[in-house]
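Tip: read the tokens left to right.
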């Protein structure tokens, strides 16, 4: 039985909760329907910087007080910025939920963005950017989506650019918040031993200083041919992604793409793990991925290997793609992939934080909370024929491109 409650307040704030009576804790998230996809080239990185700055002091609390007031009660605060959302969240013991709600409300309404703090935090974010630049296994995914989604704001990296981050002013942040961090873009999501009526009362008590704002309008991605990309780095290993775009959250076909992704490269029993690592011993890191947004997903295979083995590894991947398109999958392999995905979904539900995250994504993408049963049904409904037919387009070499990071251009 699902204990979901969804309420839309008179001012437009949406509150959703799931009551789990056998736990003594909660996970609470303040979700804004805004991310790097809503930025321009000139504002790229501002959402991520704002996320950092919300923790750096309000009219009544300095940065230390923000963290200490929650941690001294056994809880914690954190946040993340994605391409389409920003979430500020906390976890704690149920009796302390009002304090967490009040602190989060204070942060999103009364942050000062003091120039000295902004200057310091900009340097922190730039250091974070350098860390990504020094980590090819992270950088390659940014480069892949920048290349894949060129012409659309999805191509913008979440962290932004050094030039932008170093130039943003206090006024820039306030203006951006006024436009995007509004009531109409705010969702309050909670899971655990929580009470919907209490959450409504807390919202009415503490959230009274936000702009009304406007609904979100985004430019959808139109698929286009993507060129290969080489990023030179003085490193020992070669890092490669082969991939393309496919259906996003709003399409039921995403479930088919998800299963193909799993069969190809998720887990040590997957086709590519077995062929690249177990049989040939030429890649330590090998995995598939599907990073989904509302209208599209980035799909691909990532691996790293020594430069002398790169061409052989790439041929093995391409051969597995061809085999997939020619023969599809067996009933046994499909059943195993379905059980793998369903098992991971069900195990994730043992965490109230994961449940809150699942609810938030569901509400923002589908305007409802999809039940676990609905998700399981979508997975179970996929047939061998669906897999075979879908793979013809997904794994067609004409629809794929490569991104390579290495010391020299060995393939592209």
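Filled-in amino acids:
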């Amino acid at each position: 039985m699902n204990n979901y409650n969804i309420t839309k307040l008179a001012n437009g704030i949406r509150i959703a909760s799931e009551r789990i009576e056998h736990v003594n804790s909660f996970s609470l998230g303040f979700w804004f329907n805004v991310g790097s996809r809503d930025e321009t080239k000139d504002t790229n990185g501002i959402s991520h910087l704002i996320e950092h700055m919300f923790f750096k002091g309000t009219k009544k609390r300095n940065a230390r007080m923000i963290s200490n007031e929650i941690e001294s009660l056994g809880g914690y605060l954190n946040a993340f910025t994605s391409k389409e959302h920003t979430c500020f969240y906390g976890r704690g013991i149920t009796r302390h939920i009002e304090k967490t709600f009040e602190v989060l409300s204070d942060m999103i309404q009364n942050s000062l963005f003091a120039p000295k703090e902004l200057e310091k935090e900009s340097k922190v974010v730039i250091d974070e950017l350098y860390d990504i630049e020094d980590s090819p296994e992270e950088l390659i995914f940014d480069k892949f989506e920048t290349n894949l989604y060129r012409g659309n704001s999805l191509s913008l990296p979440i962290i932004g650019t050094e030039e932008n981050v170093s130039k943003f002013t206090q006024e820039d942040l306030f203006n951006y918040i006024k436009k995007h961090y509004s009531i109409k873009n705010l969702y309050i999501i909670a899971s655990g031993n929580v009470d919907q009526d209490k959450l409504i009362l807390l919202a009415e008590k503490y959230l009274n200083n936000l702009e009304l704002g406007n609904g979100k309008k985004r430019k959808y991605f139109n698929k286009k041919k993507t060129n290969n990309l080489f990023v030179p780095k003085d490193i020992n290993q070669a890092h490669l992604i082969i991939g393309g775009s496919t259906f996003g959250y709003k399409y039921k076909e995403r479930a088919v793409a998800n299963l193909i992704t799993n069969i190809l490269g998720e887990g040590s029993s997957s086709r590519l793990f077995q062929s690249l690592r177990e049989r040939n011993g030429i890649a330590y890191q090998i995995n598939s991925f599907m990073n989904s947004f509302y209208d599209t997903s980035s799909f691909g295979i990532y691996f790293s290997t020594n430069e002398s083995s790169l061409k052989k590894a790439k041929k093995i991947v391409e051969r597995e793609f061809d085999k997939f398109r020619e023969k599809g999958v067996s009933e046994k392999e499909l059943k195993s992939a379905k059980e793998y995905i369903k098992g991971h979904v069900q195990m994730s539900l043992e965490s109230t934080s994961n449940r809150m995250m699942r609810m938030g994504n569901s509400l923002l993408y589908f305007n409802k909370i999809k039940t676990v049963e609905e998700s399981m049904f979508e997975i179970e409904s996929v047939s061998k024929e669906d897999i075979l037919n879908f793979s013809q387009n997904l794994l067609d070499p004409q629809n794929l491109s490569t991104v390579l990071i290495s010391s020299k251009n060995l393939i592209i």
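The domain at 4-206 is CATH 3.30.830.10 (Cytochrome Bc1 Complex; Chain A, domain 1). The mean pLDDT is 95.
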